Amino acid sequence: MIRVLISGQPEDWDDFGDLLPAALLDAGIEAEFIQERMPRSPETIDYIVYAPWSDMKDFSPFKGAKAVLNLWAGVENVVTNETLTAPLARMVDPGLTAGMVEWCVAHTLRHHLGIDRDICRRDADWDPCVPLLAHERPLTILGLGVLGRAVGGALSGLGFPVTGWSRSGKDVPGMTCLSGENGLVEALRTAELLILLLPLTPATEELMNSERFALLPKGAILINPGRGPLIDDDALLAALDTGHIAHATLDVFREEPLPSDHPFWAHPGVTVTPHIASATRPETAVGVIVENIRRGEAGEPLLHLVDRRSGY
Ligand code: NAP
Prior knowledge:
By secondary structure, the chain is an alpha/beta fold. It has 2 domains: about 1-95 and about 280-300, Rossmann fold (3-Layer(aba) Sandwich); about 95-270, Rossmann fold. The protein is about 30% helix and about 15% strand. The longest helix has 20 residues, at about 95-115. The structure holds NADP nicotinamide-adenine-dinucleotide phosphate.
């Protein structure tokens, strides 16, 4: 019998408390589930299912933990925690990926087709403006991980010429893949629409600064479902004010919820969405957690392990 701590808020227990025990039993693994903030005998906990919004910040009592299984794709809230010595796995969830693809495709098409212009049209306002076709609008995705590749695949399937940029060189069918500083310059120069799907690490913080915004074609669109601090907010506002960037759709922010006096709220060139681009879906995520616990018990390598040095 293994012991699994679900470290989160009560709603996490609501989401996973029924699904996870049943799925583990189906996999032939008997488990005791613990929900308390600090359980009895913490050294006997085998796995910690970890929500980044939980109150747990000190992992040192969990001396026997075989793994911490993060419920989010992003790990910036936990990856630098020095009390955490057990392997850390991040969430790669088919439901989360599907949600991100849908959100990015929707917001890309909104801007590509100029949908706002037509929705806001008044009755007597007959001013036909035929949109470009997808193949006429090159776009770039920074980050070619699980999410960047899935979003890029959907957009290239619609006909957009997609360039992707990542730390290591990649070969993704249907996409131009670039890496390195020169690759970034090239990726930005052609990006009529730019999607950020990078993790937040010391190397990516404020990657999008005024110099890099200046590389984008005039009138470019920015879509950021990655992390808020990937962007220098002031540099973005300046680029919006000059019209160099025509519009920014932002889902994530340096401070969340976005403070009510933040200029993004009032700026006509900014769409704010409240960190809903995607979310872990318990129905599909549970299978990923169970598979990692099964692997841990069988002595097999865990899936989706975080490289603590690179921070993602
Ligand atoms: P992932 O699979 O770890 O992919 C990260 C990608 O970023 C990889 O291609 C990686 O390059 C690249 N990268 C990392 N550091 C880099 C650097 N310094 N320079 C260039 N490329 C770099 O992550 P994912 O699952 O796709 O998720 C990406 C991010 O999306 C998450 O970290 C999270 O912040 C965000 N997210 C947001 C939401 C939301 O609702 N808004 C939901 C889920 C996730 P390599 O391929 O070479 O390693």
